[in-house]
């Protein structure tokens, strides 16, 4: 039952923050500083998420096969590979390194 | 397929284009409110106001292709979530409800991860919520870019996530941004839920998902979404600082909180840049890192657009 409560709280909370972002009055967003911040915040959040999902397990920092996979994905991006190829390369390289015992 | 989204040369600036609605969302949006604001239907030729400063207009087919590329690639990763969630001890129904009602991957992974680790369910929910808070910032940005009428916003809000934001921001005009948002959101929502179901059903068959490298799909997706945003030294500085903060605080703060701390990289870099410009007053402002001119240009651009919008509203 407590898992259902957690699911409900997460669903309601996550929906409300999405909605709040969309409903903020336009006047608030007309200030150049706010516009600049709103443009930069996704950059900060995506960068932090990428790093965390590459280098962490739970609350500990680790260096494992994911690093090779995401590194290969970065290389594919530099070569302007299509999105599916970038993700495919990351998965394949990670699986390959693990298969080799990395 | 989605090479456009991964190309750093596409400006993510919003153009106040007035164009014929062609997406389901845009049609719903524009139809009932003729003569209202920017979206009030086509003007002759309907070119982007920023046409002079943007690359050639992007054809709808290119937008659809990009949106489908992101939607399919990320949507398929719902399989990894289904597998992970079922492996964490959640029932099939619980797993599917998460994808249907939460629909923000990082939060979903955080929740089932914390439950699997034996964490208090409410603490797990708090971590998932903190991860979801970033969507408020995306909404802040999209609110202006898409300019949806208020009655559509509660529906559109559910699709405000990393991927729809990234695709929308990569579009040169409001029309293509709406098209990109709708196609990405629809494709991703349908596929993410289907693959969640399949993943949860097939969790036992596939065995150890990490052995298949599925845990690398998430960061690769985030990286591909981030890459086109790293246009100037300012963006790169923000990303670099965010990585340091996100990893540095990971071991010491509860799950989800380090990402919020990392978000402070954005105001921090802006503040430092403001100071740097202040110190250079009287000197050559453009001799800096190359992003100074960009920032000033954008500010001016924003003011111009605001002025134009006010004119129109009167």
From TrEMBL, chain A:
<keyword id="KW-0812">Transmembrane</keyword>
<keyword id="KW-0472">Membrane</keyword>
<feature type="transmembrane region" description="Helical">
    <location>
        <begin position="6"/>
        <end position="25"/>
    </location>
</feature>
<keyword id="KW-1133">Transmembrane helix</keyword>
<dbReference type="InterPro" id="IPR008407">
    <property type="entry name" value="Brnchd-chn_aa_trnsp_AzlD"/>
</dbReference>
<protein>
    <submittedName>
        <fullName>Predicted protein</fullName>
    </submittedName>
</protein>
<feature type="transmembrane region" description="Helical">
    <location>
        <begin position="37"/>
        <end position="55"/>
    </location>
</feature>
<dbReference type="Pfam" id="PF05437">
    <property type="entry name" value="AzlD"/>
</dbReference>
<feature type="transmembrane region" description="Helical">
    <location>
        <begin position="67"/>
        <end position="97"/>
    </location>
</feature>
Automatic annotation (TrEMBL), chain B:
<dbReference type="Pfam" id="PF03591">
    <property type="entry name" value="AzlC"/>
</dbReference>
<keyword id="KW-0813">Transport</keyword>
<protein>
    <submittedName>
        <fullName>Membrane protein</fullName>
    </submittedName>
</protein>
<feature type="transmembrane region" description="Helical">
    <location>
        <begin position="212"/>
        <end position="230"/>
    </location>
</feature>
<keyword id="KW-0812">Transmembrane</keyword>
<feature type="region of interest" description="Disordered">
    <location>
        <begin position="1"/>
        <end position="59"/>
    </location>
</feature>
<feature type="compositionally biased region" description="Low complexity">
    <location>
        <begin position="13"/>
        <end position="43"/>
    </location>
</feature>
<dbReference type="GO" id="GO:0005886">
    <property type="term" value="C:plasma membrane"/>
</dbReference>
<feature type="region of interest" description="Disordered">
    <location>
        <begin position="282"/>
        <end position="314"/>
    </location>
</feature>
<feature type="compositionally biased region" description="Basic and acidic residues">
    <location>
        <begin position="297"/>
        <end position="314"/>
    </location>
</feature>
<dbReference type="InterPro" id="IPR011606">
    <property type="entry name" value="Brnchd-chn_aa_trnsp_permease"/>
</dbReference>
<keyword id="KW-1133">Transmembrane helix</keyword>
<comment type="similarity">
    <text>Belongs to the AzlC family.</text>
</comment>
<dbReference type="GO" id="GO:1903785">
    <property type="term" value="P:L-valine transmembrane transport"/>
</dbReference>
<keyword id="KW-0472">Membrane</keyword>
<feature type="transmembrane region" description="Helical">
    <location>
        <begin position="237"/>
        <end position="265"/>
    </location>
</feature>
<keyword id="KW-1003">Cell membrane</keyword>
<feature type="transmembrane region" description="Helical">
    <location>
        <begin position="67"/>
        <end position="84"/>
    </location>
</feature>
<feature type="transmembrane region" description="Helical">
    <location>
        <begin position="179"/>
        <end position="200"/>
    </location>
</feature>
């Amino acid at each position: 039952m407590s898992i259902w409560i957690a699911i409900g709280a997460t669903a309601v909370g996550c929906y409300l923050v999405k909605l709040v972002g969309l409903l903020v009055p336009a006047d608030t967003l007309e200030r150049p500083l706010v516009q600049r911040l709103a443009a930069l915040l996704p950059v900060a959040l995506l960068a932090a998420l990428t790093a965390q999902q590459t280098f962490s397990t739970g609350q500990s920092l680790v260096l494992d096969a994911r690093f090779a996979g995401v590194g290969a994905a970065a290389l594919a991006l530099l070569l302007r590979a299509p999105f599916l190829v970038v993700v495919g390369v990351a998965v394949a390289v990670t699986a390959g390194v693990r298969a080799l015992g990395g | 397929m989605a090479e456009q989204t991964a190309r750093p040369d596409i400006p993510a600036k919003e153009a106040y284009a007035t164009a014929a609605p062609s997406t389901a969302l845009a049609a719903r949006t524009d139809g009932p409110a003729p003569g209202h604001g920017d979206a009030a239907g086509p003007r002759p030729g309907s070119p982007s106001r920023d046409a002079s400063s943007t690359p050639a207009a992007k054809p709808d087919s290119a937008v659809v292709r990009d949106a489908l590329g992101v939607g399919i690639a990320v949507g398929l990763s719902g399989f990894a979530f289904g597998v992970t969630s079922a492996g964490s001890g959640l029932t099939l129904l619980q797993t599917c409800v998460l994808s249907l009602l939460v629909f923000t991957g990082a939060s979903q992974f955080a929740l089932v991860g914390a439950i699997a680790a034996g964490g208090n369910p409410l603490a797990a929910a708090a971590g998932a919520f903190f991860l979801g808070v970033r969507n408020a910032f995306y909404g802040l940005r999209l609110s202006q870019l898409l300019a949806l009428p208020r009655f559509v916003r509660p529906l559109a809000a559910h699709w405000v996530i990393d991927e729809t934001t990234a695709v929308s921001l990569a579009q040169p005009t409001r029309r293509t941004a709406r098209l990109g948002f709708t196609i990405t959101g629809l494709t991703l929502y349908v596929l993410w839920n289907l693959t969640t179901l399949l993943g949860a059903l097939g969790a036992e068959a596939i065995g150890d998902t990490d052995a298949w490298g599925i845990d690398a799909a998430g960061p690769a997706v985030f990286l591909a979404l981030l890459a086109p945003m790293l246009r100037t030294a300012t963006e790169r500085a923000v990303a670099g600082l965010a990585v340091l903060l996100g990893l540095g605080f990971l071991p010491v703060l509860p799950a989800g909180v380090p990402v919020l701390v990392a978000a402070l990289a954005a105001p921090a870099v802006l503040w430092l840049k403001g100071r740097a410009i202040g110190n250079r007053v009287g000197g050559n402002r453009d001799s800096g890192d190359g992003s100074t001119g960009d920032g000033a240009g954008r500010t001016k651009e924003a003011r111009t657009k605001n002025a134009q919008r006010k004119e129109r509203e009167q």
